[in-house]
Write a structure and sequence with these properties.
Two copies of one chain form a homodimer. The first copy, chain A, is an all-alpha fold. Helix content of chain A is about 75%, strand content about 0%.
Amino acid sequence: MKKNAKEEIVKAAITLFKSNGYSGTSIRDIAGLAKVNTATIAYHFENKPGLLEYCFTNFFEQYISKMEEAYASIDKGAKNCLKRMVVDLLHYQCENSKLASLVYREMSMDSQVVREIMSTYLLKEKYYFQLVFERGFEWNEFRPHSIPYLIIQLKGLLMMPFMNTHYMREVLYVFPNEPFFEQKYLKDINLWIDKTLCSDVPMKMGAVIK
Amino acid sequence: MKKNAKEEIVKAAITLFKSNGYSGTSIRDIAGLAKVNTATIAYHFENKPGLLEYCFTNFFEQYISKMEEAYASIDKGAKNCLKRMVVDLLHYQCENSKLASLVYREMSMDSQVVREIMSTYLLKEKYYFQLVFERGFEWNEFRPHSIPYLIIQLKGLLMMPFMNTHYMREVLYVFPNEPFFEQKYLKDINLWIDKTLCSDVPMKMGAVIK
């Protein structure tokens, strides 16, 4: 058994799940691409759902820890903190664009593993966004607005390039794995924060102007 | 053969492709749900790729005609025209939320039919967005910006609720098929148009103030 077999299996699974979909990929296909036998996959991941769960967990463990780290800077202001989150999450997705693509696509299916991911990682993600938005309202940095609707918009902007990689390449000629993309698109999301989230903030009664 | 068999087959296919994915659905499953035999499906759609192509074509024919209709109002201004497009496209997606969800998910796969849809309908979609943005720059209504990057943002906002229906329901408790959602979310996209697209428009040299 090769020492890095586990890594090779994960790499092959990400590639195949990404291009053929989870349902369209067999354990045999993965074994073939990773150049291992199916028993090695069974040893490390039990079965195909086990491999998908590993991909999800691997992706969201790091994703949530980026959010936690960024949230630690909340005392420097909610807008600063949100911008730091956006930098880190966009960078993380760009660095792991294949994994991000397949995770986001498979999250749209209704399955046991998806429900588990939602009730753990995605609730945590919502919790951190919520904390930042609430601080932003409280500190008069953000225009008061429905938090779920803000999350829809921000996640829409963050996820779009990774949910539609073929469209990005073939129709728009934009390549999300190039550094140029990350810098340019970051400015666009920051503009959303500055212009739609932070403009026209009503002055609170008795608010202290800092 | 039932008179409305074709309709029943399409309805069943949309439901199953949506919840189990295209690869996770068999012609037998569809026949079972539509209460027809597999020969009837073969008669109308030849095979499973034929059924998926029908779903795509059905969705994008109407989608593009909404864009064409909205573009006819370009003489009333680029911002007005874009807002009309957004109203119509959001409404169309809300009315066909199951179909929109499955089409958007399957568009993320790399297949022959997806490439064909991209080189026809999605190029047309890009063409209309491009026309509106170019008029908006020319008429000093929109802040000059990269058109592909504007399309990424606008499509991200428009598609997000339909690409992540389980997440919307289970995590955010937002229901994209309710009329309340459509009205509320429309305001958010309009805010993006007003605040990030139409603010800080530099005055052109020699521009005529209307």
